[in-house]
Amino acid sequence: MGIMGFLRERMGKILAFFIGFALLAFIVSEVVRSGGSFFRDDSNELAVVNGEKVPYDKFNEKLEQNSAQFKQQGQSISPQIASYLQETTWNQYLSQLLIGKEIEKLGLTVGDDEMNVMIGDNNPDPQIARQFADQQTGQFDRSRYDQFKAYLQSGKADPAQKKAWSDFVIDLIEAKKATKYMTLVTNGLYVNSLEATDDYEAKNKLANFKYVSLDYASIPDAKVTLTDADYSAYYDAHKASFKTPQELRNFEYVSFNAAPSKEDSAAVKQQADKLANEFKTTPNDSLFVQINAETKAPLAYQRKGSLDPKLDTAMFSAAKGFVYGPYLENGSYKIAKLVDTKTTFDSVKTRHILIDLASAGGEEKAKAKADSIKKLIQGGKSFAELATAFSADKGSAVKGGEIPSFDANGSMGGQGNLVPEYYNAAYKANKGDILVVKSQFGYHVIQVEDQKGSVKLVKVGVVDKPLTASSKTQTVAYSKAQAFLASLTPDNFEAEAKKEGLKPRTAEDVTAIASGLPGLDNARDVVRWAYKAEKGDISDKVFTVGDQYIVSRLTEIKPKGTLSLEAVKKQIEPMVRNEVKAKQLKEKFDTALSGGTSIDQVAQKVGSKVVPVENIVFANPIIPGQSAEYKVIGSIFGSAINKISKPVDGAQGVYVYVVNGFTNPPALTNAIKQKEQINQALLQRSQGQVLDALKDNAIVKDNRAKFF
What we know:
Shape: globular
Structural class: alpha+beta
Number of helices: 24
Pfam families: Rotamase_2, Rotamase_3, SurA_N_2
Keywords: Cell inner membrane, Cell membrane, Chaperone, Isomerase, Membrane, Rotamase, Transmembrane, Transmembrane helix
Largest sheet: 4 strands, antiparallel
Mean pLDDT: 87
GO cellular component, one term: plasma membrane
Strand order of the largest sheet: 17-3-19-18
Strand content: 15-25%
Helix content: 40-55%
Low-confidence stretches: 1-41
Family: Belongs to the PpiD chaperone family.
InterPro entries: PPIase_dom_sf, PPIase_PpiC, PpiD_chaperone, Trigger_fact/SurA_dom_sf
């Protein structure tokens, strides 16, 4: 009774304890399985390098900077470009982190005097010189740099500009430290006289020889049986080459095509035909384009040669209102209309005085100064003298404000392009006019000096309708993919694909941050799935990649480090087969050599021919008509003259040769030049090799796949 009473009283607490314990165990197992922790927040942990965390937000800041620079070049960022930028930024970040640790160990610094030289006025760092180069001459413009520094110190500068400059200077300092570190490493490089002599002879000593070869292709693959011992022997001899610095995965996949059908194309063409009729009669061409075009673009006058070739031919010989199309181009049906034509000057000659906002003390003061200078010019003051005294564009100021002639698009004939505000204003003005125009550089006081020639311009409006798959086409393809997925087991992927008339494609050695696959440009979701799956797993859903529906199966996981024989067995099969063939061909040669006293007799016995070769150098081990044969040429340069060699297995087959003789070059009398050439080659490779060595010795836990 005592025990039963005790249990009745305590049962609630006992059950609560066990339920709580079970829940705790479940949560712990999930945390362990996912690599998380109760005691730390790793949601921002992009990587861990030698025990130091790399925060995602810090890395992403660098990535955004690199992406912004790429966009400034007028390039769009596709999934492939995004992947390239991410990988490039990661390598930069990792290199800086690893070199930074080495710099810290050595105590390398940049002193105040060095810093003053780097950002000084007389001979600043090349990066600063490029940023403040004169647009006309390309030379460092000290006055612009002085004005910028004064602007930063004036208290009127944007905080974002101050931070950007501060970050830039910090990067300069870190780059200088890295240069010092690399200099310490490269100063330890030394080339001795023996190395110089060996290099000279390798490039200049000539070998003349004859050879007989039996190609591996002479034995059909079907007649070669590979054993486990054959694979193991090759693997053990080449194990060092099977080391991988990161985890890789292989998978196979099938795709169900949801690209537009003929019916879809006809439907879009019908829409385009209707739009073409409406485009002909619309009273507002610009509004029609903005409403109906997939690609919105303002209507602008263009000269011959600037349109697509089809339109360029049609529009410059057509009358206003002419409609061309619909025509199919780059996956869209397009309709083009000649909205207007005009004849304007072929080129305009101007000079200008630029008033910089920073040096003038703000926009209002800059505008007032520009207006004042305009009045002085109108009152008879010398434009050239005023330009020399006041223009922030020092490159043109020394020429009285003169800049090269430009066309209607602002092109100065290979000397750069003007900003639109400048050239548009100049083309609308009359000869002799004096204008005040604002651009991103400040206020320009412009005098139109001359307007020459004439050119025809056309204004063309283009409406495009992308050729896309209908919902019916997409539904049919998706349903097939779903049915295929439902039919799969871990062992019937290939068989089911064959039933559907599909050939699985293979993606090998895919990294965790890969974005594309063979035939698929943006397959990031498929890669993410592969890195969560186990070997043999089938994708848990149908992936949409462009106009394809994808079903995948993970076939191999290759962990970081030295890959197992099983992991590389398929990869090394051709080489293993050649080694087995080499044994058979060597036996054939050995039999011929046992009774042959000349290379001609050996060739006759093996059913081949003697091939003479002249003037081969060790540094370029290519046998004419064959590929590079490093082992064979290496053996030749170590052989005696007029002695038939033993069989040597090369890249393409097995060789037997006899050396006729060597032609030695003149003795190396001046090793200094040879040493300099070798040392220069070492210097060019040294930085990359140092970084590779640091990366090889680093312990890196890379979590990028969780973020990208």
